[in-house]
Amino acid sequence: MSKKVATIGGDGVGPELVKCMLDVVDATSVNIEFIQIEAGATWWKKHGGTSLIPNESWEVLNEADACFKSPTTTPGGIGSPKSVAVSIRQRFNLYANVRPIKTFPNTNPPLGDVDFVCVREGTEGLYAGKEMQLNDNMHIALRLITRDACNRVARYAFEEADRRCWKTVVAIHKSNILKQTCGAFLEEVNNVSVEYPGIEVWEYHIDNIAQQLIKNPQIFNQSILLSTNLFMDVISEECSGLVGSIGLIYSSNIGDNYAMFEPAHGSAPKYAGMDKVNPVATILAGALMLDILVKRASRKHFSLLLIRVIAERRLVALTYDLEGSAKSVK
């Protein structure tokens, strides 16, 4: 029986990138039905409302086995809807946002070769969106942290380390200041660690690891970097810069019964229709989707092919972010 994937073309360069992914996946003859749905700022600007995702798209998402999301734009400002990614993560309890960070050969990484995985709690923290205005001068945002969510994402991080035969989980926090919220996160990480005696826990304050990732990123190689929602959102973006192009970074959002796959970068509206944005992250996100949905070892196969293309450094085969002149679609 075929799997169903709700597919969001998104905004900006999203539609052209998702086409690249679909072309590659189609060549594998895999038994997946891709159902195109609307979501994002482009749709919202036409139709308005309180969500970037229309009701009919939610119906498809609810019936699908997984979601593939190309980059979407999130409007800012008071009263605007929450992002497409946050909405889907919270609806389906996709508690582990997973972003592998690994240098591609011959890409001139700015600070040397790196190889680790960022795991981010995906459902709460400041992204719970609990804000309020107390008076004309004062606005507050609540940082929602539950032990259940901390335990789930910590367990995923240790299991990911175990699958890779890695020996370190790096817990990133600020418990000296945020004594209850970060304190609860850190306690749950240590509670889970008891079940994995062969894996060590390194504790880093968020400000310190931001420095260490620039000063000496290789000390984190073959480690899982783990943190709460906003902290890891920022840190994983810094880590993406270590590979030289965020156009190479893909991610997954994992829950117990559902998953969403996406490139890590944004919608880059200024490049829309120019056929120049790197499709590697989108293609690898699709390959990871095949790994999980139909148990095909596609990510490794696709990665090897893309590594070969990038390593040859033929500029006609590389996009502009890798100093080449290749087009992404044509």
UniProtKB/TrEMBL annotation:
<keyword id="KW-0560">Oxidoreductase</keyword>
<dbReference type="GO" id="GO:0006099">
    <property type="term" value="P:tricarboxylic acid cycle"/>
</dbReference>
<protein>
    <submittedName>
        <fullName>Isocitrate dehydrogenase</fullName>
        <ecNumber>1.1.1.42</ecNumber>
    </submittedName>
</protein>
<dbReference type="InterPro" id="IPR024084">
    <property type="entry name" value="IsoPropMal-DH-like_dom"/>
</dbReference>
<feature type="domain" description="Isopropylmalate dehydrogenase-like">
    <location>
        <begin position="4"/>
        <end position="329"/>
    </location>
</feature>
<dbReference type="Pfam" id="PF00180">
    <property type="entry name" value="Iso_dh"/>
</dbReference>
<dbReference type="GO" id="GO:0004450">
    <property type="term" value="F:isocitrate dehydrogenase (NADP+) activity"/>
</dbReference>
<dbReference type="GO" id="GO:0004449">
    <property type="term" value="F:isocitrate dehydrogenase (NAD+) activity"/>
</dbReference>
<comment type="similarity">
    <text>Belongs to the isocitrate and isopropylmalate dehydrogenases family.</text>
</comment>
<dbReference type="GO" id="GO:0006102">
    <property type="term" value="P:isocitrate metabolic process"/>
</dbReference>
